[in-house]
Every structure is written in structure tokens, then in C-alpha cells.
Amino acid sequence: MTDQTSADASQPERQPEPRPGSQPGGKPASQAAPRRNLGLRAVEKDDWAAPAATFYEQIGGHETFAKLVDVFYDEVEKDERFRAMYPEEDLRPARRRLLMFLEQYWGGPTTYSQERGHPRLRMRHMPFTIDSWARDAWLAHMRTAVDSLELSPLHEATLWDYLDRAAHSLVNAPG
């Protein structure tokens, strides 16, 4: 008795022969979809563009964010009531933390996470009473800082949208 399964497995599967005048898949040539030129061309080696610049790079990188943070904290230092929310006598560490955070968020160096771990903004701000007055004071000082950058309207709107949403998300007290 021969093993028919092993004999069948050794034979290649037979494909039906196409009928004369037909396309693969059995359709007659007259029914095949016409070939269209879709305006595509072969990709050349030099066609690969460099990756799109990050927002951080688009608006000027470190210098721009350093100016933003400096102008913001200069405003904070002039506002006695708001300045009292900062426990540190020297605002240089706060300036550095904000700079590192914003640079990382917008696609710059990842120094913030390397030094401090995950940003956890809500957790880090929980010890401070942030009500609507504090939020609005923060936003007013940040508005002055953003305006000092003279960004394009698109970049300014993108940056401001984030800052405004972040400020609203950190409110943790009524009033």
C-alpha cells in the first residue's frame, strides 16, 4: 500500500492555465481595468527630505525658550503677591526647571526627564494653592513673555494654546 498523502505533497499544485486573451484572475482583457497614470514616479535617493523640524527648532530653539522664561520670571519678580507663591528665595532654580520642561515638551533636549523624571505637572503643583486668581496672574505674566518673542501667528497661537490649557489644568482650589 502506498502513502498517497506523501505522494500528493511531493507534487506541485497545478494552476489552471489562463485562457487566451484573459488577464490574471480570469477576466477577459476587454473587462480588465484600464491602466491609469496616477502621476507617480519612482522615488530617487535624493528625494528623502530631512525630518520636519520640531516646534522647538522652528521657533529658534534654546535662545527663544530662554527668553520666554527670563521675561516670564522678570514679570513674576515685579509682582509681590504672585511672587509670594514661590517658596524659593532665589528663582534661578525655578527658571531652570521651567526652561528644561518647555524645551523638552516642544522637542528640544530631554534634560528635564533625565534630571527630574516624568514631569507630573499636576502632582508637582499640588502643594501650591492655585485658584483662578493665581492662574490668571500666571497667564498675564506668560502673555507678556510670549509677546516678547514676536513669533509668527501660527507659532504664537500654538504655544499660547498649550500654556493656556496647562494653566487651567493646574487650578486646584476654588476662587
Protein architecture, described:
The protein is mostly helical. It has a domain at 59-169: Globin-like (Orthogonal Bundle). The chain is built from nine helices and no strands. α3 (61-78) packs across α5 (92-105). The longest helix has 18 residues, at 61-78. It is elongated. The termini are far apart. The model has no long low-confidence stretch (mean pLDDT 85).
- What is the level 1 CATH name of the domain at 59-169? Mainly Alpha
Average pLDDT for all residues:
85
Radius of gyration: 31 Å
| Helix share bin | 40-55%
Beta-strand content estimate: under 5%
Helices and strands in order:
Blueprint: H1 4-10, H2 55-58, H3 61-78, H4 80-83, H5 92-105, H6 111-116, H7 121-125, H8 132-149, H9 153-169
Task: Write out key terms for the chains shown.
mainly alpha, Globin-like, 53% helix, 0% strand, elongated
